[in-house]
Amino acid sequence: MTHRTPTRRGTSRTAGTRVLLARTGTALCLALTLGGCGSDSEPTATTDGRGEITFATGKDNTGQLQTLVDSWNSAHPDERVRMVELPEAADQVRQMLVQNAQIKSKSYDVVTLDAVWTAEFAARSWVVELPKDKFDPASFLAPALETGLYRDRLYAAPWLTGTGVLYYRTDLLAAAGIKEPPKTWAALADACAAVAKLPAGKGVACYAGQYDKYEGLTVNFSEAVQSAGGTVFDPAGKPQLTTPAVREGLSFLVDGFKQGRIPSKGITFKEEEGRREFQEGRLLFHRNWAYVYALASAADGSSKVNGRFDVAPLPGKDGLGSGTLGGNNLAVSAFSERQASARDFIAYVTSLETEREYAKKQSFPLSRAALYDDPEMLQRYPYLAVMKEAIGRAKPRPAAVRYGDVTAAIQDHVSAALTGQKSVDQATTDLQAALAALTG
Amino acid sequence: MTAYGGAGPLAGPARRVGQGRLAVALLSPTFAVLAVVIAFPIVAAVWDSLRVTTEGLNADGLVVQGERFGGLTNYTNLFSGAAGDRFRTALGNTTFFTVTTVAIETVLGLAMALLMHRAFRGRALFRAAVLVPWAIPTAISALLWRWIFATDGVANTILGRQVLWTADGIQAKFAVIIADTWKTAPFVALLVLAGLQVIPREVYEAASVDGATGVRRFFRITLPLVKPALLVAVMFRMMDALRMFDLPQVLVGAREPAVETLSQLAWDEATNLRYGPAAACATLLFGYIALAAYVFVRLLGADLVGDREARR
Lengths: 440, 312
Fold this sequence. Notes:
Distance between the termini of chain A: 37 Å
Helix content of chain A: 25-40%
Protein name (chain B): Multiple sugar transport system permease protein
Strand content of chain B: under 5%
Oligomer: heterodimer
Number of strands of chain A: 13
Order of helices and strands of chain A: EEHEHEHEHHEEEEHHEHHHEHEEHHHHHH
CATH superfamily of one domain in chain B: MetI-like
Shape of chain B: globular
Structural class of chain A: alpha/beta
Largest interface: A-B, 46 and 53 residues
Strand order of the largest sheet of chain A: 4-3-5-13-8
Subcellular location (chain B): Cell membrane; Membrane
CATH architecture of the largest domain in chain A: 3-Layer(aba) Sandwich
Distance between the termini of chain B: 15 Å
Number of helices of chain A: 17
Radius of gyration of chain B: 25 Å
CATH topology of one domain in chain B: MetI-like fold
Strand order of the largest sheet of chain B: 1-2
CATH class of one domain in chain B: Mainly Alpha
Number of helices of chain B: 14
Family (chain B): Belongs to the binding-protein-dependent transport system permease family.
Structural class of chain B: mainly alpha
Organism (chain B): Plantactinospora soyae
Strand content of chain A: 5-15%
CATH architecture of one domain in chain B: Orthogonal Bundle
Low-confidence stretches of chain B: 1-8
Helix content of chain B: over 70%
Largest sheet of chain B: 2 strands, antiparallel
Largest sheet of chain A: 5 strands, mixed
Keywords (chain B): Membrane, Sugar transport, Transmembrane, Transmembrane helix, Transport
Low-confidence stretches of chain A: 1-44
Mean pLDDT of chain A: 87
Radius of gyration of chain A: 23 Å
CATH superfamily of the largest domain in chain A: Periplasmic binding protein-like II
Number of strands of chain B: 2
């Protein structure tokens, strides 16, 4: 229960250099103090050098990343890559990268950025612009490429991607005589009503996504808004929350809770809570990411819906809806001295061949469009066709420099609406004001 | 430390000076380290809390930062507008948790200590079991309680109804209080037990001879004699509860108005790169804890470092 006091020491105000000492604990603080707290030097021409580099990425649960790095290393003995595994939780990774950037540390050359951090890291000059032609941008899935852009410049090469999809129970829909998954919210509600009348539908709730107060809520809210034809931010970056589409999107969630389509305990659901609920056979429809497919298909008895579910793109208000994009992109740290090697390594990891190798060994969807049409891949991962369609309809989450504040504001007001503390109108009006203040 | 720092029975003036020099020489490395790891961060935090950062975007969309001395701006901002509501809520939560958890833990801890003090079969086992919650890291026990308080967790199964413990609201406050009590009542119990064990048995025997009842013995003998130990335990708990962070953070989550404490608020501001407001909040919390400790020592006379014993 140690309380750590956040502190910071400005070393060179003209250069805007700032040193973050605190929160890394007193030991690090001491080390930094005695060691002169990093360097104050501005990036110079020598930053474009070559040599051994480090690749900072989130925890590699697949264990396959090292294989990719090894094969690069055997081909490039002079530019060997050392992989540094950061924590598993995204917000912890962000914290480490931010601290690293603030002390202008050279310890990471290639960094893995969550799809929503690009604007922040680019605007604060923590990562450098990448030459677009080096990465063959046209062959990326277009929405995935968009998550790496800031003001139309490429700052992070798309790597892992993915969007929310609708998991549904094929057995229950068939029993109710429904042939295909719902494309609209109305069809979804009808299907639920039909299944609820069946004996097999007893104890099965209709629908749930992620509604706990965390990043997942921002995702689910953005998806509801987009699926109603609205948008949280317009292309110029101005918040647009007072439109009818936004109110309809939020009402879909609020009414879902009020009318019992979404079970009341859904307010505590993150990805895993909802997944367990679906796997236990207690949900007819469930919005989640691709990773659920493998787990829900497990034949070892851990999943009660094994072989009795499928995936579809998310439904919307008047036709198919639109998901938000998740995923990880690769960027070159602005403080790296070996940016030429770093760029080459990113080009290698995100190349079609490497991605194909990687895709064979783990199920996270990757960024090159060609993989989604590859027959071998389709056979291995039958949901890829659905995923491609869903990604094609997906939009990135709001690209805001102060994304942390933006997502916090969205969570505050949307959560208040879901729990009935605020009306839909009140919540959208308040959120508009809050976001307008944040984006200036 | 004070008890041994003074002169021994043989000390003359010359010996005293020599010992003083030796003491300075031996202690200076400690003080140097303390200055770096305690004084420096505190001064740096206060300095930070007085600075204001302004941000804007240039034509390329890159952030341009300015920094200036802002006086007490960061502090006054904590009391105004939407940020003010959040700060007041956090201050209220911090105080509420401190008062309720410490009160409950004191009563429970005292009861547990009295129980452990009695001779009964399996007492050693009971004592060891009591230590377990205290031995588990707070973040881990918070995770444990999050499972218990999950919608289909143990708590709801026992209650037979669906309470959304980890969603916002009064039930989230209860969840934090329950989990904190479970974790730290043993700490109070063990400190109090140490105090109980130094009370001479003869005092009780004399009281029995004089015909005092059990209740009377408790209020006239046990409580006054165990008071020094109890006060130290309560004071430690109070300071610990005032800076509560990981339990609500893991059990319920960040930015939940029902449970957000001042530590969480400072952390959240810092992770969003607003170091000035974060430092201001942390500095106020530091002042709050220092004030609470001071008042506690003054009002109740908690004898923290054994000063009074040494002076006698």
